[in-house]
Specification:
CATH topology of the largest domain: Methane Monooxygenase Hydroxylase, Chain G, domain 1
CATH class of the largest domain: Mainly Alpha
Radius of gyration: 25 Å
Shape: flat
Order of helices and strands: HHHH
Structural class: mainly alpha
Length: about 120
């Protein structure tokens, strides 16, 4: 049987081999013919027209960041829900504090109008 250190070492070596193997494979099978289109800065999508300094609504990104924030917050609820029956008062109060912080953040975002889709 391998010790824990030996298993970690084998896992590390296999990971390094996979990483280097992917880079070497990509180098070996890359296309070799030069093409003016392929050497452009952006090779996909329509060519840009006009200036790049265009105004866009930042609210879409704020909405997405709020979604990701609350989505990650719900990930922390899963282990707590699994262990809820064996949890003591300290764990319960910690989760109440966590919920309070999440609800406070949601109330603040709502008050600031970050959830309004205009």
């Amino acid at each position: 049987m391998l010790s824990v250190g030996g298993a970690i070492f084998i896992f590390l070596v296999v990971g390094i081999i996979f990483g280097i193997g992917g880079i070497v494979t990509a180098f070996l099978i890359q296309p070799r013919r030069k093409n003016s289109v392929k050497e452009e800065t952006y090779e996909c999508g329509p060519p840009t027209q006009g200036t790049a300094w265009v105004r866009f609504k930042v609210q879409y990104f704020v909405y997405a960041l709020l979604f990701v924030t609350f989505d990650v917050a719900t990930i922390y609820l899963y282990p707590w829900a699994v262990r809820f029956s064996g949890a003591g008062m300290f764990e319960f109060l910690a989760m109440v504090l966590f919920f309070a912080i999440v609800v406070l953040g949601l109330a603040y975002a709502w008050k600031e109008g970050a959830l309004e889709w205009k």
